[in-house]
Amino acid sequence: MNSLIAILGLAFLVLVHEAGHFFTARLVGMQPRKFYIGFPPAVFKLRRKGIEYGIGVIPLGGYVKIPGMHRPAPSDVDAHFGRAIEEAPQLHVPAERLKRLLEEGHFELAIGSLPAFERALAETELSEGARKGSERGLTDLADSLGHDAYWRQRTWKKVSVIGAGPGTNLVFAVLAFTLLLVFGPGRGTTTVAQVEPARPAQQIGLRAGDRIVAINGKPVGYVDMFEEINGSRGRPIRVVIQRDGRRITLPPVRAFRDADDRYRLGFRPDFEPVPVHVAVWESLRITGVITKEIGAVLGRLVRGSGREEISSPIGIVRGSSTALERGFETFFWVLGLISLSLALLNLLPLLPLDGGHIAFSIIEGIRGRSVGREVYERVSVVGIALVLTLFFIGLSNDV
Predict the structure, then answer these.
(1) Which pLDDT band holds residue 237 (cuts at 50, 70, 90)?
(2) What are 222-231's contacts with CB under 8 Å, separation 24+?
């Protein structure tokens, strides 16, 4: 059951990502053609105001179809109508005319030629497969030649639509961290709330209400406190506390190793409520720290190390399931981390990732004209190879 909830959690984050693309596209005047929850085949679908909404049988996120992601090219004609032309050679002439118009950039004339081409196809006897392929081709070409096609838009609109996907994941992560700080146990302090019996903390006289101010002579905050204890790896440490206004140095003590392979003294810290504005700021700080660490992991990968830190969807689901066993708060925290990771991964300047589309949109804006389809395809091959490499590294780690 936990694994199913973890899978649905990951699917929800993908859906949040696609919703960002969808609603931003509509906001800036691009008309998406499809918005699906899950992937086809569809178990339910309806068309409203030119958009097909559907629920796919595979509950793994969703997808949005934005028309005209690339400028139409002559090769599109061959791809869409090649089979029909093989069955009916008389279609060769209108197809070549359409290819020439696309090659020369006469897109308005190309739009005007589509109805005649459609009539020629309707009057020609074709097999079922060739006819369906041609119908899809006409729809795709009409979409990509339309005035709301993605490639025709101004740079800021294209960057907004593509950036909204990872941007929505980023906002979700910050929101998740904020909600956990506000409605969760609160912000950790160095004040002791409870001492576990028969543990090192009790043996050296640590009491509830004591405030830990230093470990091994180093002043500590909430996070530093546990890092120093765990970093001792069982070696003796000295704890300095504040009790009733007095600083007291407790006797040396060795931490014990728990079931999670972490070293602890056996006490629980106190937590304090976090105001909303403080929670938002702290969430942004946490996001920055995690972003820096993810960047460091990618840097280590480039230098040939750190591959053990990469995980695939299998590992993500496994980690989410484990987090769920520890409570919903832990699971929600992990969900925020995954959402942030999805945002950062998608912002890498590699096609077909969102970051690659953003980079090419900016390049096209500077050049003042679209980049050719063949350039997109060549660069996409490199990007897909790198993404697949990361996937298989993560998969090998998880397996």
Answers:
(1) very high
(2) 222/187, 222/188, 222/189, 222/190, 222/269, 223/188, 225/190, 225/269, 229/255, 229/263, 229/264, 229/265, 230/255, 230/262, 230/263, 230/264, 231/263
